[in-house]
Amino acid sequence: MQATRRRFLSQAATTIAAAAAIAPVLPATPLKRPIGLQLYTVSDALQKDFNGTLKKISDMGIKEVELAQTFGLSGHEIGTMFKDNGLNCRSVHMFDLDQKPGAFMDFAKEVGAKYAVTSFNPPGMAMSAMRGDHPDFEAFSQMLDNMTLDDYRRSATVCNMYSELAHNREIVYAYHNHNIEFKKFGDITGFETLLSSTDPKMVKFELDCGWVAAAGYDPAAFLKEYPERIKLLHIKAFKPGPPTVSLQAAKKPQPTELGRGKPDYKAIFAAVKHGAVEQYYIEQEPPFTDMTSFEAVKVDYDYLGGL
What we know:
This protein is an alpha/beta fold and 307 residues long. It is 44% helix and 15% strand. The strands form 3 sheets. It has an 8-stranded parallel barrel, surrounded by 4 helices. A two-stranded antiparallel sheet has the order 6-7. Strands 10-11 form a two-stranded antiparallel ribbon. Helix 8 packs across helix 9 and helix 11 (219-225) runs parallel beside helix 12.
């Protein structure tokens, strides 16, 4: 009986060792949650081969993605390709500022997302700069830079309206920040106005940690102060430089790979542990001057694995 038991244990150990030898080695992940990718980062590759790019992302080990462009594909087509490549899309950004809000919420639902996300909710004048065959991004950026406190109050009203549309479709609305929201109006910023003027139960936030740090603020502080409002994170880095709350080309911070700029993500992930963040996404802003977008994603992915 003892000999049989010893033989069984020996065979089991051999089998386990063999399986470990051929199993892929996956990196550790912050918060014991999968590392996600905002697909905007690899827009250049998606434009050329959408499905092939999704396969490369999945093969890398990334299983959570966030959508920002459709490249002419329907929500059903995209959702099917996500499933075929073993990818989960938890959130979708509004990719067309002229799109009807209800249609965007329907699209997010069709893809299979839980969150529908917008940025800026810009005033009509800014929208005009993006219409036509040749959108003027610099004029658009300047108008965003010039948003007033009243504009942010109006944006908060839009957030509340979007949250109702999302709720009616059994999804959740979230607002995604850049750096411009941290412009001060007396003792308050645009971002604080959005937080205080929206329904805390209905309007959630996707905190872009890189843009917060670029504006001279600490993302960890917001995670600690608003643990139930912040549900999603963008994880990006900018090269060291003076704080800026502008999106104009001459004043924008310069993007870089994670671990090669700011902010300090160890402190940020420590703060996340006390909140209700559901998912975080690598996102790197173009241009990619030192490597391709996919090479940058690998650097970012390995950096997070090292945390």
